Structure formats: structure tokens, C-alpha cells
Fold:
Amino acid sequence: MTEITAPLSDRSVSFHTSDAAEKRLRARYAAEKRFKAYGVIAIAFAVSMLAILLFTLFRTGISAFWQTEMQLEVTFDAAVVDPKGTGNPADWDRGAFQGLANEALYKAFPEVTGRTDRRELRGLLSPVAGAFLVNYALENPAVVGQTVKVWLPTSDGINQIAKGNIDRTLPESNRPVNDTQLGYLDRMESQGAIRTAFNSTFFSASDSNYPELAGILGATVGTLLTMVVTILLSLPISVAAAVYLEEFAPKNRLTELIEVNINNLAAVPSIVFGLLGLAMFLNFFGMPRSSPLVGGMVLALLVLPTIIIASRAALKAVPPSIREAALGMGASKLQTVMHHVLPLAMPGIMTGTIIAMAHALGETAPLLMIGMNAFVTAPPTGFLDSSSALPVQVYIWADKPERGFVELTSAAILVLLTFLVAMNATAIYFRKKFERRW
Amino acid sequence: MPITYTVGTLLILTALGYLLGRRKAVTVAGGNIASLHSVPSYYGSFSALWVLLPTISLVLLWLALKGPVINWAVVDGMAPEAVLGWANASIPPGELEAVRARVAEGAGALTDIQRQLLLINITNLAAGQAQYVNPAVVDILRPAAAHMQDLRSLTDWALFGICVSLAAAALFITRGKIGPAFRARNNVERIVTFLLIICSLIAILTTVGIVLSLVFESLRFFTKVPVTEFLFGLQWSPQTAIRADQVGSSGAFGAVPLFAGTLLIATIAMCVAAPVGLLSAIYLSEYASGAVRNVIKPVLEILAGIPTVVFGFFAILTVAPFIRDMGAAIGLDVSSQSALAAGVVMGIMIVPFVSSLSDDVINAVPQSLRDGSYGLGATRSETVKQVILPAALPGIVGAMLLAVSRAIGETMIVVMAAGLQANLTANPLASVTTVTVQIKSILVGDQVFDSAKTLSVFALGLVLFAVTLVLNVVALRIVQRYREKYD
Structure:
């Protein structure tokens, strides 16, 4: 721009001698600068929104990977744990373990005796600490009848306070933990009985009503099963359709109709595919609700147009000379396509497929329509089991009132985004590695 | 005989067909492979395809029809006494009279909902889950459950038998055909081409499936609620009562508040997305250096790749509280589920969509137009405003229409950030609901498939589909015609 603005300062070489002309020119340059600034502002807005989005997710989600735990001296009373006395873990009274944890807590605070005081005290410990005790005892069956120091998860409120997600200087009525409980927490902390440990439950558990017990394993397995169905159905069908339309189809009404159809299908709202799945697959064909099979089928229909369009572009990019050479050597039309054109178009097709699968991975609405928002506490074991999916899990947790689920939601999103980034990175790698300019 | 075994057997037979076909071809060639019309593997493939295709289509067909057919046979095969016995224990006394009056027809005396209920009981019983069934009817339904189990195993065995004999017949016939003069490659290629055509027809079948399921269920809805009331009514409260004497039992299905809410949020979204998307596209294609473009474009692609459920969470976690606090600071009463929050976040989501479409359109404007403008002494912004934009206008309009269609069909952001209450208002600070929100909130939860409430979802879906379809067709037409102009 400098070479244009230079004459302005140097009147002797300027053509624009009159003041009015110079004013006009100044105004035009100002308009130019303003217009450029608008563009910069627009881009800055979009980029900063992305930055804010990612930053908020990291800030709220990263703490979910840690869980505050308290050390308690638990007495595994054989008469309570194993009332039948068989010594077989299958006969344990699993419901009694929560009581053991509570007893250990009372022992740590012997001066707290009243009913209401003890209830307040129990507010420190997770209401499902018993489940963790059961797992601990299953791993170390020798502890039955002994007194051992065990690290147990704290309640959601204590967890959030200890990790600083809830400001402890807030007025008492605005936080889930009252002043007495804070006193208990501080005392335990000064005794070194409070620690933050890696939250392995988040990766090994499925959905739960308690944030301490909730994890993404079930949803992740559900998503994987769904994706397997999606890719097994959509990839062969789309590639076959693309091959036909690009290499074989005569130019006629039917072909044109199919093409218009595919373009329109790509823009149909995803929730409509969900309605299709509900009316066709569930109600008409009676397939199992909430199953990865139906979810995968719906998503396969959803990504079909995307993969077809990408595959056609990849096929179109293969130069005609390849086809002519193959045909000249006596190959049939189908041999030409299968042995030469398709292999050369494969990198492009794979790139398009991975991007389409990444899109399917984040789809939520159609899965909600076919009931994949099921509350499932164990990972699905087959394609017909009731199951959830990662984005649906995000939606379910975002709806829950407990403070602990906010960080879990963000953490689940971080995991989901990790998958997406990995898939897109693979697609970019494919494109860079196999891209060929003819 | 589970279906997996049948499929497994068929796959083995297919492999066998390939080997036998190939071997037969080699044998008849008698050491001189060149005497065959095709390469031996084509003879194998010919056999294999004929073994696999008819049988696997049969299996798929049966898998699709199995549930409805068996259910129909079991329920209609029930004795009238069993139906009545079940009805006595399971349905409210008010509805019992009608069943009693027509009990001679057996299960024909039941309404669709009662029939579904009966089927659920029988299916649970047949699956050995008697604990989910009312103990009073367990013994009455035992024969029906046994009938269902019998039919299932019988049909599975029959399917296995038919498939294996079909496969054997195919093996035999194709083997008989194989000879040196047999044009195996041409035959195989004809079959493969046929399969390719079938695959490309699936796209059409999907559309037909969408239209059929939406239209069919919508027609059932319109028998309960008149079309005019649905399209022009101003009151939306789909809570139909369970008992007839409940307050507000009729429900109101005037969808205008939903359409208005959808339009309001889509308008807000476009107010954000259109300027931001268009200006960034202009900046990227006309001003930015190659290095800047290489950084910014992937960033926008990341924004485009973020799942909408994440945007929804972002809206409730950050944007909605921010807008509410801003409103409170200047003394405005902002709903925590304001249309503004949902619309702004949706706008952010659509920005990369608008910008990449506009980018394509702007890049399609020939360089000669730019050069001409610069040659006349115009600045870049003047070139953009007076030459490029007018030339690209139809394409940009098309891009905007596509973006509007995205905004109208978007679900998760509004489900999470917009309200449920159907308010007819143009105030962006109030809470409104949208078509997609209602579809989701009605369907997730109860599933009685006969009530006007559930069926209304399909009418809403039909409107959604029709509107987005028209927008897409028009937009694609415009964009395409425009591209051809400069190609």
C-alpha cells in the first residue's frame, strides 16, 4: 500500500492537485482500511470464539481427570462382610460395605455423635464409597477381618471444593458444603488424609447417577460398535454407487434424478434421519431400540451422500489416460475400473470416508430419536444390546443438576474432540502422503 | 438355528462354489487354459455369486419381515378366551366392554395399543423374562409364548433349509453351464454392474423411505387434528391427557409458535453467521497472504468439525449466563434460555459453512474482472463491493439459503439452549421453542404410538423436511447455474 500512499505526502508529483480530489482520495483509502478491518474483525471473532470454546472446555473439564480422596481406617468385619461365613466373595453382602465406610468415618471423628451431626459428617464421603470398598476387597480378599487404611472418594461437594471448582469463600447457603463440613475437611487435610488422585473410574465405568461413579467406557464402546456398523454399511455401498454414477451410468433421467437426490440428501437435517430410523427400523421392522445396530444403520444413511460425493470427486480426479491405456490393453470396462481407476482413487475415497465418519461420530440428534439415550451402567457386549454413545452421553450429563457432572461433561467432550482430531489428522496425513498430481 | 449359523453356512458354500467353479473350468480346459473364454477365476466368481446373492437376499428379506409376520401369526392365533382372560387382567374396565362385545373375533377385538401391550407381554414371556409380566396373565399367555417360540425356531430352520437347497441348486446349475465357450466374465460383469446400480438406488430408497414414513404417520396425525389447525393454529400444548376427564385433555396442535420460534432463532443465527462468514471469506480470498490463509482455513475447519452437542453445552455453560448477566447489567430481564443465546451460538456454528461456501463462490469469479477493476484504479474494497460481490451475488444468495436450511434443521444446540415453552414472540431475550426441540422432547420419553402427541412429531418432521428440501433445491440450482456461467 505504501507505494500508493506515497504521492499523498509528496504534492509535487501528485496528479490530484485540487483539495477536493485529495479529500476524495483520502476518503477512499479510509474506506479501504475500514473494509479490511471488518474482515480482520470477522476472522478474529470466529477464531476467538473457537479459542474461548476450547479454553472453557479445558478449564472446566481438566479437573474431572482427578478425584479427591480421603484416607479412612476401615475395619472389614468378617461378620458384616461375609454373613454366611463361606469365604467366597460371591456370598458377600455388598450392601454392607457403605456401612463399613461410614463406621470408619465416625471413628476418624469420635467426638461427632449426634444423629444430625453424623449425617453432616457423612456428607464428606461419597454415598457410593461402598462400591469402591467392594472393588478394593475383591482385589485384596485377605483384608476381610482386618483393619486397613483405604483411600475412598469424597462426596461430589467436597470434591468440587477441594479442587477449587467451587469457591469456598462463597456464603454458606450458596455452596453444597456447609461450614462444619469445611472444618472437618480442613482437619483431615491437616492430617494428610486428603489427596487428589487420578480418576481412573472415568475411563473404566459407564453411566451413573453419582458423578464419582460415572465414566465414559460404556458410551465409548457403544460409539465404537455404532461406528463399525456405519462404516461396514456405508463404505461399500457409497463406493459402489460412486463407481456406477461416475464410470458406468448413461446420461439419462434416472441418473440425473439419483444425482439431484444425493445432493439433497446431504442437506437433509440429521433429526429427519432419526425419524426415518424410528418409523422404519424400529416401528416397522421391529429392530431392537437403543441398539448400536440401528444407530449404525441410521448414521450410515446419513453419511452415505457425503462419502458418495467425495468418492466421485476422487474418481473424477483419475486422468482418462489411465482408463484409455487399460482399455487399449484389452481390459473390460469393469476390469479397468476395478484394477486401475479404483485403486488410484482409493486415497481420496479414504480421506472422504474418514471425514464423514468424524461427522457421524459427533452426531447426536438421530441417536436420540432411536433411543440411544438409554441409561446403561455397563458397556454393551453386542450390536443388539441397549447402549449409549459418546455425544449422547455428553448430552445426558449436560442435563444433570449435580455440579460434578459439569466437569464430567467437559471431560467427555475433550475425549470426543480427541477422537475427532485423531481422525481428521489421519485424513490429512492420508491426503498429504498419497496425494498425487497428474 | 440362529441366523448367524445360516449366514456362516452360506459363506462357506460361497467359498465352495468359487473353488468348484474354478476347478471345473480348469478341468474342462484340459491343461490348455487359453481355450477358455475367461480367466478361470471368473468361472469361480460366477458360481459363487449365484450361490451367495439369491440366498443372502432371502435372509435379509426374512430378517426384515420376521418380527411383524411372527407377531401377527401369534396374536391372531390366540384363542378368544385367552384374549379375554388377558384383557380382564390388563386393560382398564372402561375399555373392557368393547373387547367383550367383539371377543369372538379373538385378537381382532383389541385396539392397536392393546395389541402392542399384549405383544410385549408375550415377547417377554417367550424370552424367558416372566418377571416383567403381570403374574396374573402368565399362565394365560404361556400357550401364545410357546407358539411364538415354536414359530421362531420353525421359521429359522425353514430358512436354513431353503437357503441351503437354493445354494445347492445354484452350485449344480452353474457347474453344468461351465464350459470352454461359456462367457463367464461377461456374466460376472453383468451381475456386478447390476449390484452397482442397486447400490446407487439406495440413495433414492432413503429419500422414498423418509417421505413415506413421514407422510404415512402425518396422515394418521391429520385424521386426529385438521391440517389447517396444525399449520395456522396459534396454540401449541401437546400434552394430551391420560384420562379423558383431565383438564386440558384435548391438547392444542397449532404449530405457528414453533415456526415463529424456529425462524427467530434462525434469523439471529444468520445475523451472526452471514456478516462474519462473508467478510472472513472476502478477507481470506482477496486480502490474506498465503501464510495467513494456511493458518486460518484449518482453524475454520476445526470450528466446522466440532459436534453440535458441544456447541449446545458451550451455550448453556458460557454464552447464556454471559448474555443474562449483560442483560441484568443494563437492566433487562433476559430468560436463561433466551433465543439470543441459542441463536448466537448457532450462528458461530454456521460461520465456517457460510465462509467456505462464499469462498468457493468468490474464487469462481474470473480474475479478469478483478484485473479490469484494478486497471481502472479501483481500490481492493471498491473492487470487492462493486465488481466481485455483484458478480458473485447469486452464488452468495445460494450459500445463505443453504445456511438458513442448516439453521432450521439444527437440533442439539436448540435442544440444550432454547426453551420448551411455545411462546409466540419476536423478543430475542425471551425463551422460544423450535420445531426440532419439540420433535426431540416429545419423542424422548413416552412411546405410545397412537396418541396425537407422538404422531404430531411426524407432521413437524414433514414440514421440516419439506422446507429444507425446497431451500436446498433452490439454493443448489442457483449455485449450479451460476458456476456454469463462469466455467
